[in-house]
Amino acid sequence: MTKAKNDYVMTGRPKKRLFIGMLSLTAVLMAAILYAIWYIGVPGLRSIQPMLPWIIGAVFTVLVLGAFFSIFNMVLAVAGLPYLPFLQRQTYELINLLFPLAVRLGAVFGIRRRKLEGSFIAVSNLLFNRMGIRVPADRLLVVTPHCLQLASCPHKITRDPENCKRCGACDIGALVTLSHEMGFHFFVATGGTLARQIVYKTKPKAVLAIACERDLMSGIQDVYPLPAVGVLNIRPNGPCYNTHVDIEEVRAQLEKIIIPKPRTRNKHRYKYKYR
Is the overall model pTM greater than 0.70, yes or no? Predict the structure, then answer.
């Protein structure tokens, strides 16, 4: 394996504190920028209306305090302490706003975008698990990218995974088998548009997505408030080509989400046949 390809192999679990730390630092920077804008604009605002600097200052203060409270709430969740789950939407909106700046700020410290995205997924999955979301198997949707299929495979599975012959050359067959065993909906998507169509059509109560860091981050935010958990794919051949997934990790996540069916007792279990 070449050195270039090694860059795409997951070498360990992303650290949650990385994303939270960079988001906090970005929020501090944004607060400083807003204060500088307010301070420079005070004379002009005062000439328009004496109370205008105070009104604008109050709005900026509320925005900054809201951002810091959302981040603090996230820290409480990660630390396993009581937190406010209803602030999750505001947290995702804050992430959408600050993440581009966090990426640029991370580059200054030598932190790659992929690491930040992986750290976000780890935080998002933790919030998902802390909410204790459990759904019936038939209300769970599992979506994977088409790059999980062997590139040389002649069978089209993007519309119907059942076309997979389960030869074992890629992980699609194992996921099809798992869907039969556990009863969840399973689809292979060629991109974000098809994935959103699948979500709209199946109307699940929860989603488990398998993809790279970038696609998982955007997908989790796109489907919100629908709860979603992400599993990172493995890329020994580079991005979007003959990727893999840890099936045992997928199974472990599914067992946390799916409500097990009650076992029915066999009425004839204790009957004996007499001659």
Answer: yes
